[in-house]
């Protein structure tokens, strides 16, 4: 028994030493950062900006891979099952929290299948419509959709997407169910909105700011407490008469559970540095958002955010009766 104990202890020491050596050499090859949505969407935009800055800091390229489908759960599931070596990461948004209620069966345990790196940003949402949509302001929009609820079409990027969540909250606030048109990503949804194939949607400023400024779509409100600096003429929902219609699409970076703490520390430090990069700060500002603070770009802050958001959205989703298999 003593020999067995000694052998086990020796194995642990060897494994620990190997893990530390692995962490010291990390990264020695390119890293894959999975974004669980289609290319060209708002989360994809955020991911590519952060991945480029972190890659420069770490001295290795971070390759962004789009693994869309099932409201982001396919990409998250891929990372949950990946090797615990720090070479496969996940950048996900608020859908990480809402999928815990939306999906009856997930291929992973949301809170316990990942290690946490840190929060990246909290992006405001905008309620927007095709450029020739009849309502002129939020009051007119609410009146119009209540009267024409069977004809109005609301676009979203699929179950669990940010646009889907924002839409559910809007319908809940105005107490009116609407015909929804789900797409496989925000990119194609926005294309059809610009092309006047659907009436309106709710989406992140990272995807709507340029379209609003160019006049390709019209904006009614932002879903923030204060006006968005890049869209100063757009009122908040509360200013326009719809208090409580507030939602921000926060993003965080995750690694498979069991990743070396030393590697997580390196990734967190790199994230914090990337979020101070002048190019990232400016590009985020252009898109209507800002980087998370150093205090929020930490594992503890991300875990706390995920936990609180699961609790916040569960009753909204249950009340709407929207579930996916």
Automatic annotation (TrEMBL):
Tagged with keyword rRNA-binding: no
Signal sequence bounds: 1-23
InterPro entries for the chain: BUG, Bug_dom1
Domain of life: Bacteria
Gene3D superfamilies assigned: Bordetella uptake gene, domain 1 (3.40.190.150), Periplasmic binding protein-like II (3.40.190.10)
Keyword hit for Ion transport: no
Keywords: Signal
Similarity comment: Belongs to the UPF0065 (bug) family.
Name of this protein: Tripartite tricarboxylate transporter substrate binding protein BugD
Organism of provenance: Chelatococcus sambhunathii
Taxonomic lineage: Bacteria, Pseudomonadati, Pseudomonadota, Alphaproteobacteria, Hyphomicrobiales
């Amino acid at each position: 028994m003593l020999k067995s104990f000694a052998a086990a202890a020796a194995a642990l020491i060897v494994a620990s030493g190997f893990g530390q050596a692995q962490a010291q050499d990390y990264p020695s090859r390119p890293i894959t950062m999975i974004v669980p949505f289609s290319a060209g969407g708002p989360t994809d935009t955020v991911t590519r900006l952060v991945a480029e800055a972190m890659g420069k800091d770490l001295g290795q390229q971070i390759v962004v891979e789009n693994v869309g489908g099932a409201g982001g759960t396919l990409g998250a599931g891929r990372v949950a099952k990946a090797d615990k070596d720090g070479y496969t990461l996940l950048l996900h948004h608020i859908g990480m929290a809402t999928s815990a209620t939306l999906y009856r069966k997930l291929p992973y345990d949301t809170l316990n299948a990942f290690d946490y790196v840190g929060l990246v940003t909290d992006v405001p949402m905008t309620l927007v419509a095709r450029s020739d949509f009849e309502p002129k302001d939020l009051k007119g929009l609410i009146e119009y959709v209540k009267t024409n609820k069977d004809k109005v079409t609301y676009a979203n990027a699929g179950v669990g997407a940010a646009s889907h969540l924002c839409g559910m909250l809007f319908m809940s606030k105005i107490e009116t169910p609407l015909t929804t048109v789900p797409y496989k990503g925000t990119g194609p949804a926005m294309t059809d909105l610009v092309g006047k194939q659907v009436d309106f949607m709710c989406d992140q400023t990272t995807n709507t700011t340029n379209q609003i400024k160019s006049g390709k779509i019209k904006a009614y409100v932002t879903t923030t407490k204060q006006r968005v600096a890049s869209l100063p003429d757009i009122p908040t929902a509360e200013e326009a008469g719809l208090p409580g219609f507030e939602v921000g699409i926060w993003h965080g970076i995750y690694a498979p559970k069991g990743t070396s703490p030393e590697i997580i520390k390196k990734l967190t430090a790199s994230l914090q540095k990337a979020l101070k990069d002048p190019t990232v700060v400016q590009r985020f500002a252009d898109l209507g958002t800002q980087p998370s603070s150093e205090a929020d770009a930490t594992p503890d802050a991300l875990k706390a955010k995920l936990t609180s958001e699961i609790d916040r959205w569960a009753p909204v989703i249950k009340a709407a009766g929207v579930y996916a298999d």
